[in-house]
Amino acid sequence: MLSDLAGAPAPATVIGQLATGLRARRHTGTPLSIAPCDNMADNGQVVRRLVLDFVAATSWSDRDRLLEWIDSSIAFPSTVVDRIVPATTAADLHAAEAALGLRDEGAVVGEPFTQWVLQDAFAADRPRWETTGAQLVADVTPYQVMKLRLLNGSHSLLAYLGLAGGCRTVDDVMNTPWGEPIVRAYATEVAQSLTSAADLDVPAYVDSLLVRFGNHAMHHRTEQIAMDGSLKIPERWLAPLRDLRSAGYDTPVLATALAAWARYTRDERIDDPAADRLRQAWRHHQADAVRELLRILGAPELADDTPLVAEIDARLHAQDLGIEAGLSC
């Protein structure tokens, strides 16, 4: 139980600090909206749950009253933030220093594109963010899913295929004859898993992806995008894969994507929290290795999908032979 003693140190976590701040604010009675701007799906409800859990775990004398007040007076709208920001390099820091006239070790480089979607569920008046391009919607979920499955999903596909073909950056991949076609083929396949929300312009979104991925100024490294695949792939690829296969659709591009990732997991330099388990999967025959890799991703039902495993296995053979899409940079 957390202490309620006066003079106790402030909590070290962001959630603890939010809870402590809300405890102080309750005495003003003023409602507040907390809008997280990260890449976590359903981020508003996640933050709400964590704040409530934190307060419930304290020994604060006003704990129950605070929980009731948060429930009635604090809003946690979910958001979707989209802007590609590659890892900062030494060259980026030098460029920022030349532009600013001072050294900023925290400088980051971002693309021109920006998207900010907010759930229009606030506890009180809010700034008119929509006048500068923000989208206020009843439910951000369709936008979140589109970003994860189309942008992030195709980004990962380009990374793994690009690494197989010796491409260092995403724009290198887009310079190949197969870069744009594979993105369009992937998007066409995966778009069938998206909601039919009237205000989602999927074709325009895909066109924008091609422009963004081809930006030569970004230098977004395929190696950076490829890391931590075991954490990224379940949301980016497996969620649409499940939806499509359960609806009876063929999934050749997603099978190609999983084959490219499987190929990457054989590399001793793989950067992934599950790296040891991924490497150990390759002690088996290739098809069995594919099954084990799918289990590591938390998809035992896909590992038991014999036609899917066979298709991934066949596409992995093709990539090893260098005939899958003529991979090269």
What does this structure look like?
With 329 residues, the protein is mainly alpha-helical. Helix content is 53%, strand content 5%. The strands form two sheets. The chain has a three-stranded mixed β-sheet, covered by helices on one side. Helix 5 (141-164) packs across helix 10 (229-246). The N and C termini lie far apart (57 Å). 33% of the residues are buried. The mean pLDDT is 93.
Observed structural traits:
3-stranded mixed beta sheet; 5% strand; single chain; mainly alpha; 329 residues; two-stranded parallel ribbon
Distance between the termini: 57 Å
Count the strands?
Answer: 5
**Whole-number average pLDDT?**
93
Structural class: mainly alpha
Contiguous uncertain segments of 5+ residues: none
Cα radius of gyration in angstroms: 23 Å
Q: Summarize this, please?
A:
Helix content is 53%, strand content 5%.
Blueprint (SSEs and pairs):
Layout: H1 14-25, E1 32-33, H2 43-56, H3 63-73, E2 74-75, E3 79-82, H4 90-100, E4 115-119, E5 135-137, H5 141-164, H6 170-174, H7 179-190, H8 202-213, H9 222-226, H10 229-246, H11 252-265, H12 275-281, H13 286-296, H14 300-303, H15 306-320
Parallel strand pairs: 1-2, 4-5
Antiparallel strand pairs: 3-4
Helix pairs in contact: 1-2, 5-7, 5-8, 5-10, 5-11, 11-15, 13-15
